[in-house]
Amino acid sequence: MMLAAQSIAEGTLVHERFRIAALVGEGGMGAVYRAVDEATGETVAVKVLKNTLGAQAAERFLREAQVLAGLDHPGIVRFKHVGTLDTGGAFLVMEWLEGEDLAQRLAGRGVTFLEAVRAVRGVAEALVIAHGQGLVHRDVKPQNIFLVGGRAEQVKILDFGIARGGKLAKALTDPGTAMGTPAYMAPEQATGGAQVDARADLFSLGCVLYECIAGAPPFFGDSPIACLAQVLLTEPAVLGTVVPGVPKPLEMLVMRLLSKDPAARPDAAAVVARDLGAVEPLLTTEGSAGAVSGRHVSRFEKRVASIVVSRDLEKMDSREEGATLPFAEVHSALTPAQEAVGRRGGSVNVLWDGTLLGVFTGSSSAGDLAKAAASAALELKARTPERALAVATDLANVLGTSATGAAVGRAFGLAGRSGIIRVDATTRALVGDTFLLRGTEGGTELVAARDASESTSRQPVLGRAREIGILNAALDSVREDELARSVIVVGPAGQGKTSVVRAFLDHALKAAEPPRVVRVACDPGHAETSFFVATEVVRRALSISPTAAPSVQRLALRRGLSEGGAGATFHFLEHAMGLDIEGSAPVVAEASYDPRLLAERTLDEWLEVIRLFSKKRVLLLVIEDLHACDGPSARFLDRALAELVEQSVLVVATARPEIDEAHPRIFADRLLDRIQLAPLPRRAADALVRAHLGASAAADAVERIVEHGAGNPLFLLELSTAAGEGLVEPPASIVALLQERLERLESNARRVLRAASVFGESFW
């Protein structure tokens, strides 16, 4: 509930000089009255602070008076007087302004290109004076830009209440505190950095100019935190792709102002004013810059992003509303986040309240991004159990660098309980076969990575009897002939590769002599990390946690290999696993000068370990997403099939079609079965949908889902779930997977398809 400001009756004489005429506005900080200065006869504005607010608010109020008293420019609202009411509340007297603020104009008829440039140029000229005195406004936004008489060429900057610098000795906000309005706040402000200078105001000015021309701000979100995440992580669409016809010099200036790096922005407000002056002759007053042309084909694309949010709710709740969590308090969580997210190809940002954002985006598939985010979240849960975690995946507006879109807001909404990882529906659909999930009152909880021995079938595996039969026959052949062989199951995302392998494992593990199963999922974030998959095979086989201390991992490795019959120390393998914590052994140090020799010696030791693992029973290596395997590990697997040909080893791999580009002819010269998964036959698709919806499902609904599902098991299941919940829009998981297919097209082809989405199903 908003506290009422002090009420001053009409006709009251304030400070024996200012006669109150009328209340004209009221807000969270206080009220504004129109009054007459009886000493001069001028109409003035009297701003009265609520006396119920704290000392810091009063000090900011005084700061505004001090700042305005020291500034004299036609583009800055003029200070008249400051004092205290008889009832104890502070008041500030300024010149009276007739007109409207820029926010009101944008909410109404908008502005033309020319009006936008003139208004922002006027603000830049006024900021030259403020910056010249060492002051940073820190809250430049449309609400604080007043159009006198409604004219863009006559602007006034308002509200210097949180300005910092200049002659004011005491800052009201400590370093590490974010003050300002999220949608217009520079990245260095959003992170609470101490080095916020005049270039932060220029970033805000860029946001204002972008909004004037595009009709919407460059950064937005469902909450202040989500909005700050956009500021930190999202590159807005290039202005000319949003509004055709924007002069190139104007577009370039706006995008420079919006640079994340302060050094990439214009040097000073005077430079901005000069450049805007040079743009004016290129503009006309025709056309509204406050409306966006919606039917054009842009270079602006949507791609998939997965977001990990980590929040310390207890510390946030213990602080005053709006207060910043000092970086010192999040340092213990930041390092694990940087390691967990960074090693999987993501990036980490810190928000002013201590929230950590992990962002996964780029050319990887939707499933790969979601799995990387889920894996990072599990590691973070183990290392920072006091924090609430969430993972969300969605399409994001992407232009060159990372972006977040709606996933940020959803992730913040899900991160509501310490020690728990919650995931949104899209992430759930993309990772459900790889991670253990369970339903809770607050949503779906991510529990752990699935063990190879677990059955993960969420639905019957229909229409795949032939493929499962090939896998069973391969295992029988290895048992009987004691010859190493391989099977690769190839298909696009959602085609059922994992389900086929799981069904095979269910059968294999029920045998009288079950194989020793070692399952590793290749990680796109480690596709360039040499030996990553090979060393993960060893860790998984010996149940060595990758997050354990190196000394603990090394002890587990040596003990496990010794129990398996190894009689020597595997120095090269320890080096590849990063466990030679006391320095490399002399033989490793000597070989390190020759990368080829180092790789060969590492391979020799790795092959010896595989021999140990397959000595007593069949070793079944399940390698998921082989297309994302690092090159050295892929060669190790291929060499294992060649050099251990008389060992009982079966390599079963899943891969997307891009396997032929990532690792051409892998296993081609070995005993190999390649299973190319086709879309489900119509009868199997029909049975799958009916099994999900129930026997009473309407025939026309089943037919529609089967038609739209195109034989893709995941599509069929997600469409069935949506139909059961009465949803009309396609599930986000399907949109993400379709986007993944579009990503494999070259850029001009994607542009044509975007044109098709604008002009309709048929166009020429």
What would your notes on this structure say?
With 764 residues, the protein is α+β, with helices and mostly antiparallel strands. It has 5 domains: 13-95, Phosphorylase Kinase, domain 1, CATH 3.30.200.20; 99-282, Transferase(Phosphotransferase), domain 1; 301-449, Nucleotide cyclase, GGDEF domain (Alpha-Beta Plaits); 465-676, P-loop containing nucleotide triphosphate hydrolases (Rossmann fold, 3-Layer(aba) Sandwich); 682-752. The protein is built from 28 helices and 23 strands. The strands form 5 sheets. The chain has a 7-stranded mixed beta sheet with strand order 13-14-12-15-16-18-17, with helices on both faces. A 6-stranded antiparallel beta sheet has the order 1-2-3-4-6-5, with helices on one face. The chain has a 5-stranded parallel beta sheet with strand order 20-21-22-19-23. Strand 13 and strand 14 (356-361) form a beta hairpin. It is elongated, with a radius of gyration of 32 Å. The two termini are 58 Å apart.
Show the helix and strand layout.
Layout: E1 13-14, E2 18-26, E3 30-37, E4 43-49, H1 55-69, E5 79-84, E6 90-95, E7 99-101, H2 102-107, H3 113-132, E8 135-136, E9 145-148, E10 155-157, E11 164-165, H4 187-190, H5 198-214, H6 224-233, H7 239-242, H8 248-257, H9 269-279, E12 301-311, H10 313-318, H11 327-342, E13 347-350, E14 356-361, H12 366-383, E15 388-398, H13 406-414, E16 421-423, H14 425-431, E17 435-440, E18 443-449, H15 465-481, E19 485-490, H16 497-508, E20 516-521, H17 532-541, H18 550-563, H19 571-576, H20 586-591, H21 595-613, E21 619-624, H22 631-643, E22 649-655, H23 659-662, E23 672-676, H24 682-693, H25 699-709, H26 713-724, H27 732-743, H28 747-759
Parallel strand pairs: 15-16, 19-22, 19-23, 20-21, 21-22
Antiparallel strand pairs: 1-2, 2-3, 3-4, 4-6, 5-6, 7-9, 8-11, 9-10, 12-14, 12-15, 13-14, 16-18, 17-18
Helix pairs in contact: 3-5, 3-9, 5-8, 11-12, 14-27, 15-16, 17-21, 17-22, 21-22, 24-25, 24-26, 25-26
